[in-house]
Amino acid sequence: MQNVNVTNFRQNIFAMLENTVKYNEPLNIITRDGNAVVMSEDEYNSLMETLQLLSSPEMRAKLLEGRDTPLSDCLSEGEVEW
């Protein structure tokens, strides 16, 4: 995450926002009263989807089970029925 003070952000807002959108890297804007984070819409939507999936105990358990399953126990892409 890139850190920038609010003065530099104001001076370079267009370029910084373009980079945030292009590279999906959040931008931490530092102010005297606290910090703010700017992120691309794609990154925000991904974060919200992750939170929604993890908020369901059943889905969370399935995701953790999948994460912990060895690749040797998984089906190949060709074997998956969509």
Descriptive account of the structure:
The chain has 82 residues and is α+β, with helices and mostly antiparallel strands. The protein has a domain at 2-39: YefM-like fold (3-Layer(aba) Sandwich). Helices cover 54% and strands 17% of the residues. The chain contains four helices and three strands, in the order βααββαα. The chain has helices at 6-11, 13-23, 41-55, 57-68; strands spanning 2-5, 27-31, 34-38. A three-stranded mixed β-sheet has the order 1-2-3. Strand 2 and strand 3 (34-38) form a beta hairpin. The longest helix has 15 residues, at 41-55.
SSE blueprint:
Layout: E1 2-5, H1 6-11, H2 13-23, E2 27-31, E3 34-38, H3 41-55, H4 57-68
Parallel strand pairs: 1-2
Antiparallel strand pairs: 2-3
Radius of gyration: 19 Å
Poorly predicted residue ranges:
none
Q: Please provide the count of β strands.
A: 3
Range of helix content: 40-55%
Write a compact overview of the structure shown.
By secondary structure, this protein is α+β, with helices and mostly antiparallel strands. The protein is built from four helices and three strands, in the order βααββαα.
Tags for this model:
single chain, 82 residues, alpha+beta, YefM-like fold, three-stranded mixed beta sheet, 4 helices, 3 strands, 54% helix
